[in-house]
Amino acid sequence: MGGGGYSYRGVLPNLMSRLEELGLPFVVFGNCVFDSERSRGFDQVRYDDFRSEFEAAEYLIKRGHRSIVFVGDTTHPWFREQYRGYLKAMRAHKLNPLSFARKGPGSFVEYGSWAAERLINRKHVPTSVLAGDDEIAFGLCRSFLRLNIRVPDDVSVIGFDDREIAALMGPPLTTVRIFTQEIGSSCMKLLVEKLHNGSQGVTTRWVETELVERESVKRQVTLQMKSRTSKPFNTSTADDQRRA
């Protein structure tokens, strides 16, 4: 941005530190900083990815799902925070957390396809999947269709972001909506405030999310209580388990 200020999304902390050393005002989209702890020291706009995924998991649990798997590469900090929210919901209901959180190949769509093929080859196939974003959800659903796994009749799927593709999928995807225009507007407003008023401490602005209900989740009529004691279906690495 011209006029002495910058707004960034998807940056490394060393870049922010350098901008601070130069005395340049800047605002970051906090959810996309690769070191979430260091980002706390900078002006930012963010949404609560932890709470958003917690509420998405609760949504599935209230609809009778007990075997819920999280799919997302937790080397990315935004997926890691969502994974923590998912874990909290599962543990609150004394359910086995099931995760496919390892690093995978290619794009997020390819990651979803890659995960789907491995999920269905396990002994305990989940009744529902929380995908880290809509692209992962698209990859999952595309592979499920190819493998004759019906969404939502066989497996329910929830995405995250509410990108345009979510409403166009078959079936349309239930997902967590991020208000991207509000995030961008809030970043610019905060930056202008900093330019006009100077430094007044670190500011964090929060933007709400909402769960958009479409057609990719089916209510489970019979609660699968055995899933609490059955052998966990888990494709996480040892490092994933330590993070949990």
Structure description:
It is a single chain. By secondary structure, the chain is of the alpha/beta class. It has 2 domains: 6-47 and 179-208, no CATH class; 49-177 and 212-243, Response regulator (Rossmann fold, 3-Layer(aba) Sandwich). Helix content is 40%, strand content 16%. It has 9 helices and 10 strands. A 6-stranded mixed beta sheet has the order 5-4-6-7-8-10, with helices on both faces. It has a 4-stranded parallel beta sheet with strand order 1-2-3-9, sandwiched between helices. β6 (128-131), α6 and β7 form a beta-alpha-beta unit. α5 crosses α6.
Topology order in helix (H) and strand (E) letters: EHEHEHEHEHEHEHEHEEH
Kindly estimate the percentage of residues that lie in beta strands according to DSSP.
Answer: 15-25%
Helix content: 25-40%
CA-based shape = elongated
CATH topology of the largest domain: Rossmann fold
- Integer tally of domains: 2
What structural category do the secondary elements indicate? alpha/beta
What is the number of strand segments?
A: 10
Write a concise keyword list for the protein shown above.
four-stranded parallel sheet, disordered N terminus, Rossmann fold, 244 residues, six-stranded mixed sheet
Blueprint (SSEs and pairs):
Layout: E1 6-8, H1 13-21, E2 26-29, H2 36-39, E3 44-46, H3 49-62, E4 68-71, H4 77-92, E5 98-100, H5 108-119, E6 128-131, H6 134-146, E7 156-161, H7 164-168, E8 174-178, H8 180-197, E9 204-206, E10 209-212, H9 238-243
Parallel strand pairs: 1-2, 2-3, 3-9, 4-5, 4-6, 6-7, 7-8
Antiparallel strand pairs: 8-10
